[in-house]
Every structure is written in C-alpha cells, then in structure tokens.
UniProtKB/TrEMBL annotation:
The lineage of its organism: Bacteria, Pseudomonadati, Thermodesulfobacteriota, Desulfovibrionia, Desulfovibrionales. Keywords: DNA-binding, Transcription, Transcription regulation. InterPro entries: AraC-bd, AraC_XylS_family_regulators, Homeodomain-like_sf, HTH-like, HTH_AraC. Residues 171-268 form the HTH araC/xylS-type domain. The keyword Nucleotidyltransferase does not apply. Transmembrane segments: none annotated. One of its GO terms (molecular function) is sequence-specific DNA binding. PANTHER family: HTH-TYPE TRANSCRIPTIONAL ACTIVATOR RHAS-RELATED, TRANSCRIPTIONAL REGULATORY PROTEIN. This is Putative AraC family transcriptional regulator. Pfam families: AraC_binding, HTH_18.
Length: 269
C-alpha cells in the first residue's frame, strides 16, 4: 500500500447538502473531533482503529463507518500498511428533506454502533461513491437508495432522552461560544454567563459534548473556516474570518479534523 497520506474532500456539484471524502492514510492520525452531519462510509483496504465516545473500535475491510452527528471520535490506521476509505457526510435537514420525514431528528434516529457490518451493502455503497465521484449528476439515483437501505436496516428510532439538569446551561454556553468565537472567550467569562463554577461547567459541558469548551470552540472555528473556503475565500482569509491568530494554526487544526490542508481543500473547489 502507498506509504503517503492522501485525502480529498469536496461538495459534489448541484448537491450542497452532501460532502464526499476519500483518503489513503498510513501514518496520519485524526484528532478527537465531531461532525455536524452523519459520517457514513466504507473501508476499502486495510482497517481503521478509533475511539468513539470513549470506547475503542476497529473497522475492517468492507465494514461501514456509521457515526451520528456530534459524536466525538478520532481515527488512525489499524495496521502498519495503512488503510483506504470513502466517506459521505450528510446533515439531518438534508435527510429529512430527501426522505420526507422518514428519518426524523437528531434525537429520534441513530446508529447504535459506529461500525456496521453488512458486506453486500458496503460493496454497493462503495461502488455508488466511486461512480458519483466521476458522475455527480447520478448522486440522487445511486446514493439515495443506498442511504435509505442503510438507515432502514441499521439505524434505529430512539426516544429523546430526558433533559439533563444542566442541558440549558450547556446550550447557553455553546450559544455564547458561537456568538463570541472571534474574541477568545475565557472560561471565567463563560462560567459567569451560564451561572456555574468553572469546575462544574467543565464537567457538564464535557459530559454533554465530549469536548472541553476550548476544544469545542476550536472545532467550531474550523467549521467557520471550512465554510469560508467553500465560499471561495483564500486560506489566509478563511483563517482570519474563523478567528485564528495565524494561518499556520488554522492549517494544523483543519488538517487534524479533515485530513487535508485548507490549501488542498480550496484547490478542489
């Protein structure tokens, strides 16, 4: 297997609700991160090892990656030879629109495991992703049936969990971080805003999101930077718009989450 680390991430023309990703990694290691969308894909060669919500998992060849929105995970090769895989990122609003409410809501439908074993479906999904890379106009024809089958067969309705005591405080903290993302808000300011001690806020925020407030803010800034790149901004402009002090910091954080640099991502636009 090629020893280089290679990755591509793009939005197929005419389908803004989808992002496609393909990679071949040997030594690259993802930081702990989460996606706003469902992260769905197929291991084509080798295997991936990762920690998902605190538990260790391994995805062998022809297994399906099935990570729900906002679930924290990392990722690296399970073997010294590396691995190759393809991913599809699709958000809840897109799914709701496509399937006319059949799969409703962040708290109502989810995959129980981040690794789904269904080799026939994995082969079909992988083939569909390969074709759509070259013929994006066939996305609806090929990927929508695959998604419907995947969700129907392996995702399960679940009742919304009762609101935890501090859900409102965590929600308020996230809103504050979004509103002040360019200002480097301190933990002291955040704790005062939500009316909790720093220690208490750290504990309940991490319980709810899987990340400490500062790590969550960095993830949010990376998302802001990616959206700026998608709008045609240069990496330097995207770094500034996302609140990074310099472009090199943005580049490191972006690659740790997306597997490629902002420059490489922008070149694919």
């Amino acid at each position: 297997m090629n020893s280089r680390n290679e990755a591509q991430l793009w939005t197929p023309p005419g389908h803004p609700g989808f992002r496609l990703f393909k990679a071949r990694f040997t030594s690259f290691v993802f930081d702990r991160h989460a996606h706003e969308e469902f992260a769905l894909g197929v291991i084509e060669e080798g295997g991936q090892r990762f920690v998902h919500k605190g538990a260790r998992h391994e995805a062998p060849p022809l297994s399906i990656i099935s990570v729900n929105p906002d679930e924290v995970h990392d990722g690296q090769s399970a073997t010294c030879d590396g691995y190759a895989y393809r991913m599809l990122y699709v958000g809840i609003p897109t799914l709701e629109a496509l399937f006319d409410g059949a799969f409703r809501g962040r708290d109502l439908h989810a995959f129980k495991s981040p690794v789904t074993v269904d080799a026939p479906l994995a082969r079909s999904l992988d083939q569909a992703l390969r074709v759509v890379e070259l013929q994006p106009e066939r996305l609806d024809e090929l990927l929508l049936p695959m998604l419907h089958t995947l969700f129907s067969r392996h995702a399960f309705p679940r009742l919304a969990v009762p609101c935890a005591r501090h859900d409102a405080a965590v929600r308020q903290a996230r809103e504050y971080l979004r509103a002040h993302a360019l200002e480097n808000p301190t933990l002291d300011a955040l704790a005062r805003e939500v009316g909790l001690s720093k220690f208490h806020l750290l504990r309940v925020f991490k319980e709810a999101t899987g990340l400490a407030p500062h790590a969550w803010l960095l993830r949010h800034r990376v998302q802001l930077g990616r959206k700026a790149l998608e709008q045609g901004r240069t990496p330097a402009e995207a770094a500034a718009l996302a609140g990074f002090a310099d472009q090199s910091h943005f580049t490191r954080r972006f690659k740790a989450v997306h597997g490629l640099t902002p420059g490489a991502f922008a070149a694919m636009r």
